[in-house]
Task: inverse folding
């Protein structure tokens, strides 16, 4: 089984961090009135910022906040568990489309945090195409628009919801709230799985 994993909002709690900074940037730096497009997924699309204002925000916060961001709860343990079960993990991210140098920052951060994976793809504009080429069985993604595209093409997708955009679940789309729910569902498709002490040790502090 091959599992595809997004980075921001799935491994790194980066989307929430940037949404918070975006609100303060809009309030204190631009002195504007806040979100004008609440249904937008990307934080840059939620405000009435000019291209110059967007670029300034990215220049000020994108790289620095990447260094600051935390991991999502139990993501390291969850991916280690899945690797222990001989599942292949491929990270697929749009990181690098806005600023290419963030790829190196993220790569170093994943290494420092000892996040297990088999391969990584940065700056991917078309995740559906790559997932099809790589024969991804499961994709874990927080972008609702990408989730719809994947599930509509019969790639099992876990929508790790961290915004107010609701999707309709189907046989190929499941909304989840955390990595515990993701692992539970994936493991349900592994008939030989049986918990043991080595798995339990991953979650003991």
Result:
């Amino acid at each position: 089984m091959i599992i595809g994993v997004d980075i921001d909002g799935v491994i790194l709690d980066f989307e929430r961090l940037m949404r918070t900074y975006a609100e303060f940037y809009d309030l204190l730096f631009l002195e504007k009135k806040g979100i004008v497009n609440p249904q937008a997924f990307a934080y840059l699309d939620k405000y009435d910022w000019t291209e110059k204002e967007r670029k300034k925000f990215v220049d000020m916060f994108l790289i620095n906040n990447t260094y600051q961001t935390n991991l999502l709860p139990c993501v390291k343990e969850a991916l280690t568990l899945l690797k222990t079960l001989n599942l292949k993990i491929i990270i697929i991210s749009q990181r690098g489309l806005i600023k290419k140098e963030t790829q190196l920052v993220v790569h170093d951060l994943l290494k420092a945090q000892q996040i297990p994976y088999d391969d990584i793809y940065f700056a991917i504009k078309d995740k559906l195409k790559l997932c099809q080429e790589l024969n991804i069985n499961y994709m874990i993604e927080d972008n609702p628009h990408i989730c719809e595209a994947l599930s509509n093409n019969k790639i099992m997708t876990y929508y790790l919801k961290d915004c107010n955009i609701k999707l309709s679940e189907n046989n190929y789309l499941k909304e989840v709230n955390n990595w515990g729910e993701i692992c539970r569902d994936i493991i349900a498709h592994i008939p030989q799985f049986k918990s043991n002490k080595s798995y339990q040790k991953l979650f003991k502090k």
Notes: The CA atoms of residues 8 and 14 lie 5 Å apart. The beta strands are 2-5, 88-92, 119-121, 138-141, 156-160, 173-176. The longest strand covers residues 88-92. The domain at 2-12+71-201 is CATH 3.40.50.1000 (Rossmann fold).
